[in-house]
Specification:
By secondary structure, the chain is of the alpha/beta class. The chain folds into 2 domains: about 40 residues, no CATH class; about 300 residues, Pectate Lyase C-like (3 Solenoid), CATH 2.160.20.10. About 15% of the residues lie in helices and about 25% in strands. The protein has 8 helices and 30 strands. A 12-stranded parallel beta sheet has the order 4-3-5-8-11-14-17-20-23-25-27-30. An 8-stranded parallel beta sheet has the order 6-9-12-15-18-21-24-26. A hairpin with a 2-residue loop joins strand 28 and strand 29. Helix 1 crosses helix 2. The radius of gyration is 22 Å and the shape is globular. The two termini are about 25 Å apart. The structure holds 2-acetamido-2-deoxy-beta-D-glucopyranose (NAG) (6 copies). The site of one 2-acetamido-2-deoxy-beta-D-glucopyranose has 8 residues, from helix 5.
């Protein structure tokens, strides 16, 4: 911990670095403390010259509100402000009252735009179809702590009783080039888009925003908080809250979640694409289905479509529910015969079923990878994981324990994210939050 005196001198130093026009208010000191700790303790370079640890973020100066200062004073040139009160109007940047209005204002050119969202709660659903890079920054006093997010987006609905023809219509946040690309469809291969369907956003990033799909405060059919298809999306210090089917990463979708909190139940990480969840908290609100449910795709090249959860916690969402869930939650179940999911170095609490993964009704599971590596905590039961279960009448051990060697093909984001034609694809990941 830093003393207040050294903190103040650091703040002065920082103010100078950020060319703030006003000194920070005292209130901001505590909020900055954690960040300054990180800044002063972590920056280091490993022997290969790569940065390690977390640094003061490139976006902080723009994200941290300073009383009496224009909210865009330290934001990128192509900034667009979202201010529900419409009090900050300037010739230097456009202002919109809602996030979707700001998104819709952007032309379909190749420039990178940054939308800055003022602290507040927004009742809206977001839909991003543009191809060129787009960053959405939530204002916050602490860009390195999701728990302190000040921007909440509440939107989306539940697809109950066949209300919609597809779950795509339920989402709080959608990133896909068009409607067809976002559709789930049915059957082992899902919705088949026309061959000329384009790829959507190549570099979409959100920082410090919480998304909730809370039409019902309970499971009532699929209710997506995030839906990413044919797009590359980085989600940093965000929250995603719903019940059934919270996170959907559709076909050719790539999503990197860093230090997020994701709450859901029943197949709440599902899809066709590739998701890598790092240093995050997965909160189970109940059991049912599994945590993961993936549909793999046959391609002419080797793909790694699947969901990878690394250095994260998989825990009951609160103590009351935890007591009722002991030994009941499955790590996942195969949505088709090519399901792939791997938990790596994760902490799991006692909610996890001794067997780990489970079959999906009578479906055969010939080529699935339902993997685990380095699990620890009460949810880790080595003999339980070896229990034989029936899949299509055939006795099977569902969970595959991976070792240092067999986990290698999936260990890092750079190992799994690919372009539609199978080439490595991580240029869209923020290197500040890429720990390898
Ligand atoms: C958002 O919805 C909630 C609940 O319906 C309501 O209380 C709140 O006033 C709404 N906020 C805005 C900014 O419309
Ligand atoms: C997203 O916007 C596009 C373009 O306006 C629209 O065609 C599509 O239906 C929207 N997606 C969803 C899921 O509403
Ligand atoms: C979307 O899919 C429907 C059903 O297959 C098809 O009729 C329609 O032409 C598609 N739209 C686009 C834009 O590809
Ligand atoms: C999907 O559509 C393509 C044409 O866009 C077609 O060649 C292919 O057979 C279709 N696949 C399925 C499973 O229907
Ligand atoms: C615990 O979590 C469950 C499921 O989300 C919720 O229904 C319940 O209200 C929560 N209880 C407390 C005390 O927060
Ligand atoms: C993938 O290919 C295998 C072998 O050709 C086939 O049995 C399986 O049904 C295919 N799966 C999908 C999801 O297309």
């Amino acid at each position: 911990m830093l003393s207040k005196a050294s903190l103040s001198s650091l703040v002065l130093l920082l103010s100078a670095t950020l060319t703030r026009s006003m000194p920070l208010e005292l209130d901001s000191l505590d909020a900055l403390e954690h960040e300054l700790d990180v800044r002063t303790t972590l920056p280091s370079i490993d022997c290969s010259g790569k940065r390690t640890g977390i640094h003061f973020t490139d976006n902080s100066a723009c994200q941290i509100p300073v009383i009496g200062q224009d909210p865009m004073a330290h934001c990128p040139q192509s900034g667009i402000l979202v201010d529900p009160s419409m009090t900050h109007i300037s010739a230097d940047y456009p202002t919109y009252p809602t996030i979707q209005k700001a998104i819709d204002s952007i032309q379909s050119d190749r420039r990178k735009y940054t939308i800055v969202v003022m602290a507040g709660t927004y009742n809206e659903t977001l839909n991003i179809t543009r191809v060129a890079p787009l960053t959405i920054l939530g204002q916050t006093y602490d860009p390195l702590d999701q728990k302190k997010n000040l921007v909440k987006v509440i939107g989306g609905t539940a697809n109950y009783a066949g209300r919609y023809t597809d779950n795509a219509f339920s989402a709080s946040l959608t990133v896909a080039p068009n409607l067809n690309a976002s559709l789930t469809g049915a059957g082992p291969t899902g919705f088949n888009v026309s061959a000329d369907t384009p790829f959507g956003n190549t570099d979409f990033r959100v920082y410090n925003i919480d998304f909730s799909n809370q039409e019902f405060e309970q499971a009532n059919g699929p209710a997506l908080a995030i839906s990413i298809s044919r797009a590359n999306a980085g989600l940093y210090f965000c929250g995603f809250y719903s019940y059934q089917d919270t996170v959907y990463i559709g076909k050719l979708g790539n999503a990197y979640f860093y230090k997020n909190e994701i709450a859901g139940q029943t197949d709440f990480l599902y899809g066709f694409g590739t998701a890598y969840i790092s240093n995050s908290k997965l909160l189970m609100r109940s059991c049912g289905g599994g945590v993961t449910a993936w549909k793999g795709t046959n391609t002419t090249f080797a793909n790694k479509y699947g969901v990878y959860i690394s250095s994260s916690d998989l825990v009951a969402s609160n103590a009351t529910i935890a007591a009722k869930m002991v030994g009941k939650c499955a790590l996942g179940r195969p949505w088709n015969a090519l399901h792939r999911s791997v938990f790596m170095d994760c902490y799991m609490d006692a909610s996890i079923k001794p067997q780990g993964y489970i079959p999906w009704s009578s479906q055969p599971v010939p080529e699935t990878l339902m993997g685990e590596y380095g699990t620890y905590g009460q949810g880790w039961n080595p003999s339980g994981r070896m229990l034989t279960q029936l899949s299509n009448g055939v006795p099977l051990v569902m969970t595959t324990e991976l070792d240092d060697n067999t986990v290698k093909p999936y260990r890092k984001p750079e190992d799994v994210f690919i372009t539609p034609d199978g080439k490595s694809n991580i240029g869209w990941i923020d290197t500040q939050f890429y720990a390898w």
